[in-house]
What we know:
Order of helices and strands: HEEHHEHHEHHEHHHHEEHHE
Number of strands: 8
Oligomer: single chain
Amino acid sequence: MLAELEDCAVDSVQVGGNPVVVQSERLLREFCTTARATVSQQFDRSRWCGMQGVLISVVIGFMLSACSQYSILPAPEPAPQLPEKFTGDGVAKSYDSLEWWKAYNDPALDQVIETVLASNFDLAEAVARVEQARARARIANAVRYPELQPSAGVEDTDSPTNAGIGEQIEEIGLSPELKQEFGISVPDRLGVTTYSLSANFSYEADFWNRNRNDAHAVRAEHLATEWDYRAARIGIIAQTIHTYIEVTHLRRHLGLLDNIVAVLQDREKLTTTRYHRGLNTARELYTARLKLWNSQAELPAIRGQLADAEGRLWVLLGGYRADLAGMLPDSFSAPVVLDPVPAGIAADLLTQRPDVGAAWQRMEAARYAVGARRADLLPSLSLSGSIGLQGSDTDQWFDASQWFKNLTLNLAGPALQGKRLRHKVTLAESRLKEAAFAYKRSVVEAVNEVETVLAQLEASYNRHALLTSSVEEARAEAAFQERRYRSGVGDFDDYLAASETLSSVSTSLVAAERDLGYMRLALHRALGGTWIDTHPDNVQISNPPQAANSKVAALPIE
């Protein structure tokens, strides 16, 4: 600006939009010479450039020397010793978590689960949590990149001459005597209107990967949330199947109980008739009536349990369903004979179980957090500033000669923190240990759960086989006594006793089938899916089916 003033040959100049009268060109040049000498004493650009180069060299060398000390921690050894295969005789197969409930081969169950996946509230909440975690991961990752903010502004300044810019002019050496000698007239106020069009930017050099580790930690938390969604999905489906089995069992039990009540009513009538004839004692009559009353008393309790189970199924379905009664059958049609359970490799659970996957990702998040907190102990280097165009009129926005810049290089290091940052590192390392032990526990619990369910499933098989044989014997005995009674050889009382025994054993068999369904459900849940002949990588993944006018609650695609 001083050079431009020296080149001009005018009788007046504009200062802050107000005229300053100059009597001659010589006076203007003397003014510029005095100002240049004063500014030159206050700032030496060449000296600053040299210092700047030395500072940058020192900073880069210090950062490179520290990088090797604060690299990311290696992953801890999380997996405990696992058995080579599960207990029991089975063929080795692969696991598949896609639509594993279809292994029950029950179309009614498939319809119920499709509706649950489309409208369940818990799954919708889990999806929302995944979306929140995904947004947090993107926010954390954005910190690693430069920030650019365009701006346009207008600055209007109006100040007295004896303050601000006017005061600085006084410091240059323009005393009142000099002004009077050369006839310089300075106004009482200075007004400046400045229009600017610029881009503000800032960037922190992530030499020790602090921002990178923080971003990876949040990303791992996001992946853990996705595993939590899968766990919630399996849990909701398992709860639906469990309630479905319960409803169908109660319906079938209610039908069998009606048959038992009918048989006991016939026995009570027969015993009453025989009592009046003197053929039965009062104790025998009381015993017959007591059995009838007890069986009749079970009917309201079973109906109440059925209403409760259907109500819980309504909640899983997302609300009251008038067509629920038509959707559910009166008996569970799952096959009793199951495919051989795969012996498999226990370590395969690590790629299938959602709770194990979530625990692993949370351990990864804790590991990256340790690296980020260690990086807090080192200095940070940031660059900020702005560049753009500036002028006293909007027409100058596109004048290349009106450009300006403002750059700031900032090196900040921790000092006098009272060991706060080191305690944060200790806290992060303790959380990593906690997460590693939690992961180990989840693996051990997963393997133990499979082993326990396999043992319980074997016991359910044996009980079901014994009761099946008992039902066959009771059915044959009931048919035999019915033939004897109809042919006039046998007694009606013997026929009723055989029918009562058949109904009682059939009720036990229905309960055994229910328990077998529960055990199979527990095995699917423990394995995180079902077993297939092909490798999961060869399975074609299709979109989950949708109910009419419903949106499936599924993970949003990134």
